[in-house]
Amino acid sequence: MKRLDVVQNRGLRLVTGQTRFTNLESLRCEADTLSYNTISQRATLRSYEKAARLPASHPRRQLLDNQVPKRNQRNSWRSTSLSLSSKLPYGAQDRLPLAQPVRPPWTPASNYTVHPFLPGVNRKEDIQADKLRAISNRVLQDHGANIVIFTDGSASGGTLNGGSAAIITTGDLEYPETTTRILKRGALFTSSFEEELQAMENAISWCIEHQAPQECVLIATDSQSLCQALLGNGVSTHQLKLQLDLCCGRIIIQWFPCHAEVAGNELADAAAKDAAADRDDLPRPTSYKGIIPTINTTIKDPPHEHARTQEVYQHFSKKKDKTLSRKDQVMLGRLRSGHSLLFEAYKHRIAKSLDPLCKRCNAGVDDTVEHWLVCDSTACARMDIFGHTNVELGDLTLWPRKSVALARKTLFRGVEQC
After folding, report:
1. Least buried of 10, 45, 208, 407, by fewest C-beta within 10 Å?
2. 295 inside domain
3. 138 and 280: one domain?
4. What is the extent of the structural domain holding 59?
5. Which domain-ending residue is among 262, 289, 316?
6. Are strands 250-255 and 112-115 parallel, antiparallel or unpaired?
7. Run of H or E residues at 169
8. In angstroms, rounded to a whole number, what is the distance separating the alpha carbons of residues 6 and 33?
């Protein structure tokens, strides 16, 4: 692991443009990556969770269940996995077996069609809300369905305490009449996709039991990813496709953007939240994909030991720098880490013969990033860049993107740039 760390650190310095003196915590924050030890532990725990969901006859599951006598003091995959799994929160041990392929991929769709798009709508952000609502209602009318079922799934933060709902409606689509509500509590550790899938299964189960052969049922969902998965051959939708094959009437599955102010969508959204909050119903077992976000939040790098690193990077997001040039990204990264050749104190660290004191104010203080934030001679530069002079160390990660070009000219007035 130490050898891997050496190689990783060398690579991260090349990627980020940081200097050799940059501490590892700042280096990994700049690269938005984890240590190899954490990466290895996450991979080990994911492997364990997958093995625990396999059939008892599977060799990988047998390796997990059957302990082999140890011949030395080295940790094995099994012992490490068991130790890491004990860190997962309560309820994660209620596991859902891995989904196995049960439907031949060449089997054609029987009597259902899937529409993952609305006519003329690629992104809901590009269309005004009232126009989007008009398009959605028109599509609802054009399908000419006898029954419309609105489905929705809910998960807190997209990963916890799921719930699903299917609202069966008839009558005017502007003011639908609810005939049946199917609510189910989801898994403790889940995803929005899984809850949307469960909501769709709720709707199809109702169709199998109640749909007449001559009826056309429209199922409206706000999950575009679920519609696209139904058009593919992924294992996650195999069971749902088997259910669709059992429907005796015609089924239309149509995607509608969330928050398009379609009345039925709003009903399903509220019902899904009610299902997630229902503590009388037992939660669904956790799937392998549902436990992955919890693994990532449980197994992570330890907190920053350096107080400066913690203060600077507490609000840092690498996404903000992606629109900048390589030169600007390196400049801002070195400012955040405090290892920049634009400051005399860092030059002195490399060459002891150089004077580390600030040449702007002649106050006998080392020229560092921290001093630049309070130096009287740089007040005008701080005002130009940030719009105020009271700049703290943590504000370096909130640097206004539009001010980066200005910073190259005003940040270090009177200082030679390297």
Report:
1. 10
2. no
3. yes
4. 2-85
5. 289
6. parallel
7. strand 160-170
8. 15
367 class by beta-carbon count within 10 Å (0-12 exposed, 13-18 middle, 19+ buried): buried
Q: Looking at the structure, tell me whether residues 163 and 264 fall in a common domain.
A: yes
Residue 74 — left, alpha, or beta (φ > 0 → left; ψ -120 to 50 → alpha)? Answer: beta
Alpha-carbon gap, residue 67 to 266, rounded angstroms: 52
- Identify the DSSP state of 309: H
β-sheet with 216-221: strand ranges across? 112-115, 250-255, 216-221, 147-156, 160-170, 177-185
Q: Looking at the chain, how many residues does it have?
A: 418
Dihedral sign, Cα of residue 342, residue 343, residue 348, residue 349 = negative
- HSE-CB at 294 with a 13 A cutoff on CA atoms is 27
Q: List, in sequence order, every beta strand (DSSP E) within 279-389.
A: none
Query: Greatest CA separation found in the chain?
Result: 91
Contact 23, 306 (CB under 8 A): yes
What 3-state DSSP class applies to 95?
Answer: strand
Give the Å distances, CA to CA, from 253 to 5, 183, 204: 50, 19, 10
CATH of the domain at 154: 3.30.420.10
Provide the residue-wise pLDDT of the chain in tens; the chain has 418 residues: 899 999 999 999 999 999 988 999 999 999 999 999 999 999 999 999 999 999 999 999 998 998 877 788 888 899 999 999 999 999 999 999 998 888 888 888 778 999 999 887 766 566 777 788 888 888 888 888 989 999 999 999 999 999 999 999 988 877 889 999 999 999 999 999 999 999 999 999 999 999 999 999 999 999 999 999 999 988 999 999 999 999 999 999 999 887 677 888 889 999 999 999 988 889 999 999 999 999 999 999 999 888 889 999 888 887 777 778 888 888 888 988 989 888 889 999 989 999 999 888 888 899 998 998 898 888 888 887 888 889 888 888 877 766 676 666 555 544 433 3
Position 256 in a domain:
yes
Can you give the three-state secondary structure of 185-235, one letter per residue? ECECECCHHHHHHHHHHHHHHHHHHHCCCCCEEEEEECCHHHHHHHHCCCH
Q: Kindly state whether residues 256 and 403 are assigned to the same domain.
A: no
DSSP 152: E
